[in-house]
Amino acid sequence: MSPNQVGALVLYYAGAENNQNYVKRLKDNHSQLAIDLYNANNQPASTGVKKSLPSGSQVLYYVSLGNSGATYYTIVNDQFYIADGHGGFKTTPVTKEAMVDLANKNNAGNVINNLAKASQLNDKRNGNSSDNGKDSQGSMTFDEAAALIQKGGFTDFNYDSAQSFHDGSHATGDGYVMVTYPGAKGKDVFTITKTGKNKYHIEAQYLGGSSDGYVPLEGDYGPTSADVTK
Predict the structure, then answer these.
(1) Measuring CA to CA, how many Å separate 125 from each of 16, 119, 155, 210?
(2) Is 199 helix (H, G, I), strand (E, B) or coil?
(3) Which is nearest to 138 in space by CA: 58, 37, 10?
(4) 0.85 cut: is pTM over it?
(5) Tell me: the pLDDT tens digits for 5-53?
(6) The Cα angle at residue 138 between residues 63 and 130, in degrees rounded to 5
(7) How far is CA 186 from the centre of its chain?
(8) Who contacts 28 (Cβ-Cβ below 8 Å, separation ≥6)?
């Protein structure tokens, strides 16, 4: 599981275990999930941590979904210590497998994966507000994906147009799928895949509208692939 999936899983599990109302509304919540990483014993008051972290903890994770729900957790020897609601952590840890079992029992797998796809991992251990521009395990943002596409020389890509309308675009486990609509009946799909440290491969599909949906366009619409170093 990616760090984003784990964060979504913990938020779901914490809410389900404590009968929080936000769990019932997760599938209809369109807020972006945020997962902030802090050095152990060095976090802002906004996380709600008032007591020491469990022995052996190195990273505090604070996961929040708009104003709907939030929790924090830390991992020690593959055991998850989750917030107890009183500024500390529950004394009994839980395994990732146990959280997955509960999610599967409640048929919440798709909800958790959808939350993870639209999430943002923010590494604040060195004073950074986000993972933008860093070679980390966090989800790629729209701006990061746009910058790579522009660097790849895809002439059919227009940043302003894409920023206004990119319905269907989403981060993946190792990159990003950018969907743009440059024409009234056209659609471009740029699939970005990480191939190494700061290295990415981009595949472009230029599609035109038809009564049956989108079909590949013929002609010179720009390059169909590129390898880019960030």
Answers:
(1) 29, 18, 38, 49
(2) strand
(3) 37
(4) no
(5) 999 999 999 988 877 877 877 877 767 889 999 988 788 888 889 888 9
(6) 70
(7) 27
(8) none
